[in-house]
Amino acid sequence: MTLLEIKNLKVTFESSLGKVKAVEDISFKLMAGETLALVGETGSGKSTIAHSIMNILPPNAAVKGKILFRNQDLLQMSEKELSQIRGKEISLIMQNPALALNPVFSIGHQMTEPLVIHESLKKSKAILQAQDLLKRLHFKGPGVAIKSYPFEMSGGMKQRILIGISVILNPKVIIADEPTKGLDSRLKTMVLEELKLVKEMEHSSMLFISHDLHPAREISDQIAVLYAGEILESGLTVDFFKEPLHPYSKGLLESLPEKGFKPIPGTPPSMIHPPEGCKFHPRCPYKKEICTRKMPDKVTIKGRDVKCVLYN
Amino acid sequence: MKSRTFWNRSGLILVAFFVFVAIFADLIAPHSPWERFEPYTKPSTKHWLGTNDIGNDILSELIHGSRASLIVGVGASAIATLLGLFIGLISGYFKGFADELLMGVTDIFLMIPRIPLLIILAAFLKSSFWIIMLALGLLWWTSTARVVRSRTLQVREMDFVTSSKCLGFKNRHIILSDILPNIFPVALPKFMLTVATAMISEASLSFLGLGDPSMKSWGLMINFAFIKGGLINEMWWWYLPPGICIVLFVFSIVLLGFSFEEEKKVAIK
After folding, report:
1. Does residue A173 sit at the B interface (CB-CB below 8 Å)?
2. CATH number for the domain formed by residue range(s) A2-103+149-311
3. Do A102 and B181 touch (CB under 8 A)?
4. DSSP per residue over B72-141, as a string?
5. CA A223 to CA A209: how far, in whole Å?
6. How far is A54 from chain B (nearest CA, A)?
């Protein structure tokens, strides 16, 4: 069953230097109970997709296309209708845990707020529920954690608390925006375990956003590779890591430490004046003449969708 | 570092002292401020600060005068701060049309010459204590609104506000429980400074004879000393103490306000 469907999403930002084409014509589906990883370099539009699903983009953003959640278009909804969906049905784990917690309230207050507001639970009951959740997430000393303030916690703890807050209402879709960013490898594993756990607890779906291929490989069923606001390749994660099809995907995998750390030459393109034709062509080792003129159409090959002339 | 805490502490002690005196004025004052003795006496053991033109004990007047100053100051400042918070939060959070409108109104209020307007108001309306307080409060909210708005603009872009939005909280809840507590460190010193300005304005009005004659305040005492010949006859015990009290009280409140501001700087870091 399709839970969340993005159809031809296009997001542009108005800026003093010109239009920033952050997301260009992106479509994907998120099935119930499935994890989809969105991977790509910084500035490839990953977070913009997450923010457009939550409808929290800044006012200078123009969004086109459809974001269907249970066949209802989120982009057409009023703030009031959205507040019934945010947190309860779809929740976002924000990118920067140090800033995403309110500095003046205790963790307990912030964890119970969603329960008190959405489910009109009594504070004392909500505290118990929050403690219970932390316990299930293998949090050491949930009683102490609940009484402490954000400044008393380390980055990893804050990230895990943030995951707790985001899933306390058992949302159907969890969007994790770079949850492993800035954590050491031990904490990374811990956070990933936690995400798997919360996902399985409530059979939710997850949209996992990362620039890091390792966690994406570990956690996801499906993967989509973004480059300059476009999905270049998408398909089953297992297949993708076995045999990447798109030249960019190949480059990404080769740049991993265990494959020899070979960087992709060049830099990501300007999002204001992206290159003509295929956006990857200036950095592509298999470049053909046609690549500079025309963006290749999506073809399905070996169960995966690829946008490259090599397969046309 | 050490001198800063010294000033903060002395501000706190002085304010506490004045508040204490104001609350327990009836117990502390040797006489009722309305009780009449021999007029124009010099300071003596019976009347520490002498008596005024109609024979009221000046020390008792002084002690009771702290009440009027304090109530006007705190009351006016409370009105001004509440109004400023409300307007600042609304215009900073919602931006757009609400912001343009409210900040336009603020601009208009900023243009009004406040003391002259108060003089006119006091002259035409019944010169009642409560009206003065209300008028002061309704005129002094502008800078608070500006400061609150700018801080709101800053806080509303912070990630925890976005995060609250993502959890489906309504605007009212976000304003009251996410933004307001983070505005407090700015609003509190502003409140203290407004108390000081309101007290000075009340004293100026009373000195000009536009105060409430039924409520003895320090400004009113100086006014009487001035018009009933205290100044010409060099009766310093009459006009100097209320002046010193005004300066000292305002000074201590400003010190206290500054100490909150210092804390705010630390907190923001």
Report:
1. no
2. 3.40.50.300
3. yes
4. HHHHHHHHHHHHHHHHHHHHHHH-HHHHHHHHHHHHHHHHS-HHHHHHHHHHHS---HHHHHHHHHHHS-
5. 10
6. 7
Interface residue of B151, B153, B157, B167 to substitute, partner A, most A CBs within 10 Å: B167
The nearest CA of chain B is from the CA of A235 a distance in Å of: 29
What confidence tens digit (pLDDT) does each residue in B165-207 have? 888 888 899 999 889 999 988 888 889 889 888 888 888 888 8
Ordered strands of the A18-31 beta sheet: A18-31, A2-15, A61-69, A72-73
> Strand, helix or coil at A201?
helix
SS3 A199: helix
- Write down the CATH superfamily of domain B2-24+56-268: MetI-like (1.10.3720.10)
SS3 A282: helix
Asked if A309 is an interface residue toward chain B (Cβ–Cβ < 8 A), one would say: no
Contacts of B159 in chain A (CB under 8 A): 94-96, 99-100
Question: Among all residues of chain B, which has the CA nearest to that of A87?
Answer: B167
- Quick check: A91 and B160 CB within 8 A? no
Q: What share of chain A is helix, strand, coil (3-state, %, to 5)?
A: 40, 25, 35
Domain positions in chain A are 2-103+149-311
Would you say residue B269 has pLDDT above 70? no
Nearest-neighbour CA in chain A from B181: distance (Å): 7
| Residue-by-residue DSSP string for A118-131 | HS---HHHHHHHHH
Sign of the CA dihedral running A278, A284, A286, A289: positive
The interface residues of chain A toward chain B in range 139-158, judged by CB-CB distance below 8 A, are none
B170 chain-A contacts, CB cut-off 8 A: 83
Mean pLDDT across chain B, nearest whole number? 85
Contact A57, A51 (CB under 8 A): yes
A202 contacts A167 by C-beta, under 8 angstroms: yes
- Give just the sign of the alpha carbon dihedral A121, A124, A130, A136: negative
Counting Cα atoms < 13 Å in the Cβ hemisphere of B59 gives 16
A65-112 pLDDT, tens digit per residue, is 999 999 899 999 988 888 889 988 999 998 888 888 998 899 999 999
Is any Cβ of chain B less than 8 angstroms from the Cβ of A56? yes
Tell me which chain A residue has its CA closest to the CA of residue B157. A58
Judge residue B10's burial from the number of C-beta atoms within 10 Å of its C-beta, 0-12 exposed, 13-18 middle, 19 or more buried: middle
Place of tokens 């002085």: B14
Does residue A33 contact residue A204 with C-beta atoms inside 8 Å? yes
